[in-house]
């Protein structure tokens, strides 16, 4: 995924934040080699820091891919913590599981293979942090369910809210992204901005990250 941060700035910031586990470099390399979209390392570092800052012990992730963002979060969990991560792609989920085992994190990461919208109603909350990084057109439809799964004061963190800047009309001309995805993200941002259940900040980190704090 492209970063909206200039490359030199991103590289400088990257160099300042040591990765919490060496396996992250290998997952990132595999993601690049096989074209698997994963979060920017600065977004990973942000997720790690947020997990620590709120003392999260239960995290839900929509969109495991090959486990990159999950490792950033799981390495910030206490040994008794739990990260439930969902992906509909069995091959990616299998790869992610292998990385979690290699990193010694398989005791606190539960990978679920399947469609998130079908599985979510089976989950018991509350979660301290939910990371939404799945199908962009599902961001809006999943919002109420994810809000219900969060504890008061918990965080809903959403990736790709800038979509390479394409949510800003005319910023990328001609647009490169699927118009339906761009429209879905723009509508999600508007909805989150007006949602009284959350207090939301949008950060130009990686591909844009929204941090929504659920009201107490
Ligand atoms: C952007 S990738 C996730 C990247 C990952 N969070 C990371 O940064 O390492 C999105 C993933 O979400 C999965 N996905 C998309 N929509 C989904 C859905 N409705 N249910 C389950 N998985 C979904 C895709 O298969 C894909 O692997």
* CATH class descriptor name: Alpha Beta
Helix content: 25-40%
Strand content: 15-25%
Described by the principal axes of the CA atoms, the overall outline is globular
Structural class: alpha/beta
Q: Which small-molecule species are bound to the chains here?
A: S-adenosylmethionine
Q: What is the tally of beta strands?
A: 7
Distance between the terminal alpha carbons, to the nearest Å?
34 Å
Largest sheet: spatial strand order: 3-2-1-4-5-7-6
CATH domain topology:
Rossmann fold
Supply database-style keywords.
216 residues, globular, alpha/beta, 8 helices, 7-stranded mixed beta sheet, binds S-adenosylmethionine, single chain, 39% helix, Rossmann fold
């Amino acid at each position: 995924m492209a970063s909206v941060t200039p490359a030199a700035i991103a590289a400088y910031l990257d160099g300042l934040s040591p990765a919490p586990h060496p396996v992250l470099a290998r997952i990132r390399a595999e993601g690049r080699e096989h074209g698997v979209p994963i979060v920017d390392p600065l977004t990973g570092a942000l997720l790690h820091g947020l997990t620590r800052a709120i003392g999260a012990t239960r995290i839900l992730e929509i969109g495991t891919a090959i486990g990159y963002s999950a490792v950033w979060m799981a390495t910030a969990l206490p040994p008794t913590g739990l990260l439930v991560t969902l992906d509909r792609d069995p091959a990616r989920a299998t790869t992610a599981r292998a990385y979690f085992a290699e990193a010694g994190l398989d005791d606190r990461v539960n990978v679920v293979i399947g469609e998130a919208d079908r599985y979510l109603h089976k989950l018991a909350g509350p979660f301290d942090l939910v990371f939404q990084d799945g199908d962009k057109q599902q961001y809006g439809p999943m919002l109420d369910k994810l809000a219900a799964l969060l504890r008061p004061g918990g965080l809903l963190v959403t990736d790709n809210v800038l979509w390479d800047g394409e949510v800003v009309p005319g910023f990328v001309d001609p647009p490169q992204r699927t118009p339906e995805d761009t429209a879905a993200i723009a509508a999600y941002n508007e909805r989150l901005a007006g949602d009284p259940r959350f207090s939301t900040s949008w950060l130009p980190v990686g591909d844009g990250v929204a941090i929504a704090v659920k009201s107490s």
